[in-house]
Amino acid sequence: MNILTTEFIDYIKWDKELSQNTIECYTRDLNQFINYLNENDVTEDLKEISQTTIITYMLYLERKGRASSTISRRLASIRAFYQYLLNKNLIKKDPTLNLKSPKKNKKIPETLTLKEVDMFLEQPNISTTKGIRDKAMLELLYATGLKVSELLKLKIEDIDLDLGLVITSKEFTNERVIPIGNIALNSLKLYLNEFRRKFVKDKDQNYLFLNYNGNPLTRQGFWKIIKYYKKKASIDKKITPRILRHSFASHLLENGADLKSVQTLLGHADISSTQIYANTDNKRLNEVYKRAHPRA
Predict the structure, then answer these.
(1) Tyr recombinase domain location, by residue (predicted)?
(2) CATH number of the domain at 3-87, out of 3.30.420.40, 1.10.3210.10, 2.60.40.10, 1.10.150.130?
(3) What is the pTM of this model?
(4) CA-wise closest residue to 148 among 224, 214, 212, 203
(5) CATH 1.10.150.130 occupies which residues in the chain?
(6) Is 246 a residue of the active site?
(7) What pLDDT tens digit does each residue of the chain (296 aa) get?
(8) How many Cα atoms are found within 13 Å in the side-chain-facing hemisphere of 135?
């Protein structure tokens, strides 16, 4: 390493006391930058590197097929290094000033097909108390697109069985009212009217979904339930509460829901967060078009 980068690494290690993992990332990123400079016969001293050189390096990484997240991280490491030199009065101007990281390509979320959702939701044995509870939880999760944290925080008063609505917990800033489909509503009615009392140990306990000890179900407990029914359904895909939420959004769009409505149901503050599901739908439409159009 160059003496300046060595001094910088010592600084973040001993003065800033950054984690070992962060130190290793900075070291690796700066070494790769220096290797690039050497391999491309860049004769500028590190203290004299121009913004053009750094932009050229970023373009080089892009041509090499590096992910935008990798390029962003390397720029962050280089920026931290030059901020250190600037604060030490070793340079007069930071060459990374006003340089923007490349936009991250949003990954299209994994989803289940309608058939896979049906297979998964059919697994709870509704001849048992546990199966009734699990069926109600899983049907509600897919019917509303709730986050798992929102689902497990629900209280009895958050469910309106007459109107078929769920109100997300007031602990969350994006409180919203979401309709519950008939299948999920019927499962909830069965659980609440006849079976929830079998889990109750304290009559004042008002959380909706309880474990055998009469306490609110935990995230770990819920994950075990998902894992169990995934295995039982013999579905080869990964299934998580988040994937069920993604599936909820994608299936709504596939069946004609508008993006703004899906944004409201999911509780997204910015519609760009919801837009990614439209990309999934567009992909499906492209496939349909190619199969159906005579000149495709």
Answers:
(1) 107-290
(2) 1.10.150.130
(3) 0.61
(4) 224
(5) 3-87
(6) no
(7) 689 999 999 999 999 888 888 999 999 999 999 999 999 988 889 999 999 999 999 999 999 988 888 999 999 999 999 999 999 999 999 999 999 888 766 666 789 999 999 999 999 999 999 999 999 999 999 999 999 999 999 999 999 999 999 998 666 556 789 999 999 999 999 999 999 999 999 989 999 999 999 999 999 999 999 999 999 999 999 999 999 999 999 899 888 888 888 888 888 777 666 767 766 555 554 554 465 545 54
(8) 25
Interhelix angle 219-233/129-144, rounded to 10 degrees, is 90
Q: How many CB atoms sit inside 10 A of residue 282's CB? A: 12
The strand pairing partners of 179, in sequence order, are 165
Catalytic residue among 74, 196, 245, 246: 245
Both tokens of residue 222? 């819920």
Residues in the chain: 296
Q: What is the 3-state secondary structure (H, E, C) of 230-261?
A: HHHHCCCCCCCHHHHHHHHHHHHHHCCCCHHH
Count of beta carbons in the 10 Å neighbourhood of residue 145: 20
Q: Which pair of structure tokens corresponds to residue 296?
A: 């495709």
What CATH fold (topology level) applies to the domain 114-292?
A: hpI Integrase; Chain A (1.10.443)
**CATH 1.10.443.10 domain position(s) in the chain:** 114-292
From the candidates 277, 284, 289, 295, give the one annotated as an active-site residue. 277
The token pair that represents 57 in the structure block = 């390096």
Residue 159 forms beta bridges with which residues?
166
The catalytic residue among 268, 289, 291, 293 is 268
Quick check: is 293 catalytic? no
